[in-house]
Design brief:
Layout lengths: L1 E3 L8 E7 L2 E7 L6 E4 L6 E4 L5 E6 L2 E5 L4 E3 L2 E3 L7 E2 L6 E2 L5 E2 L19 E7 L2 E3 L12 E7 L6 H44 L10
Parallel strand pairs: 1-3
Antiparallel strand pairs: 2-3, 4-5, 6-7, 8-9, 10-11, 12-14, 13-15
Length: about 210
Amino acid sequence: EFNGCLRCSPKLFILLERNDIRQIGICLPSCPLGYFGLRNTDMNKCIKCKIENCESCFSRNFCTKCKEGLYLHKGRCYVTCPEGYSAANGTMECSSPAQCEMSEWGPWGPCSKKRKLCGFKKGNEDRTRRILQAPSGDVSLCPATTEVRRCTVQKNQCPEGKKKKKEEQGKQDNANGNRNQKDTKDAKSGTKKRKSKQRGAAVPATSASPAQ
């Protein structure tokens, strides 16, 4: 059953309110909260928003203002902003991380491992960029400023390792040299002893002269 207005003047919107089994037509200069105005050559109508907790909408499925205490994000209403978003400039509208203004990436740094640049084959290299502007000044909403990737280099021994190895080799060479000198000295000493012994054995024994 239908009661009230059936048609409104061209400048007004007709709002149909349901009362039990009856619909009541009301002519209004603008649509109330929770409705949006749809102008038509035949008749201007107030159509209810289908978005839950929406106070005003642009179309049935796109909210422009949520009820008090709720946040607006992409035409819908939320208790809190979705992950990665926050209320912009104290409003109840969620802003996107895309609003962060970032600098260009810097060059990749040297390949390193545990802060060393040598003595390994596989390590990591990184590059950085800066946050030029963050929404509401909150840098936590912006993308990462550091990027890391694996890298491979030709294995190169560290200079201190080379020096240590050279010192150890030098000590070994000195030890070998000293050992060789000792062996040579011992050999010469043995030769002299043998020659002296041989000379002593070759001298004939002399007999004492008889007494007269």
